[in-house]
Amino acid sequence: MQTLLLYLLIMVVVVAAVFAVVWFAFGRGEQLPPIDDETTLTRLPAAGIAGDDVRALVFAQTVRGYKPREVDWALERLAAEIDELRTVVLTLQARDGAEPVPAEGRVVYDSTESDFPAENGRD
């Protein structure tokens, strides 16, 4: 029993020594400052948004969850891209003389940046 306790004590001392050596050799690491409130890590391409771009979206989390401003921005970009693609489809259909496919039960919404309420200071 004493041998087991002695091995356990030696193992604890060795682990503590290795930890101390690593701690002093590498330190605590660099402390990164928090990013500015106006900076976002959310990225979308300037044009040609694909499904993989949407799947790769990452929104910064706050106490309340995601920053609503970033989510609204990303959704507005997606809506603008969809509107642009629909316009191209309608133009090509009109050029070819094809009948446009009715969007039953759908409301076509032409959004602009002014449609969204101004930022009220909440994140």
From TrEMBL:
Keywords, sorted A to Z: Membrane, Transmembrane, Transmembrane helix
Highest taxon, organism lineage: Bacteria
Spans traversing the lipid bilayer: 6-26
Chain positions covered by the region annotation Disordered: 103-123
Protein name per its UniProtKB record: Cell division protein DivIVA
Organism per entry: Gordonia aichiensis NBRC 108223
Organismal lineage: Bacteria, Bacillati, Actinomycetota, Actinomycetes, Mycobacteriales
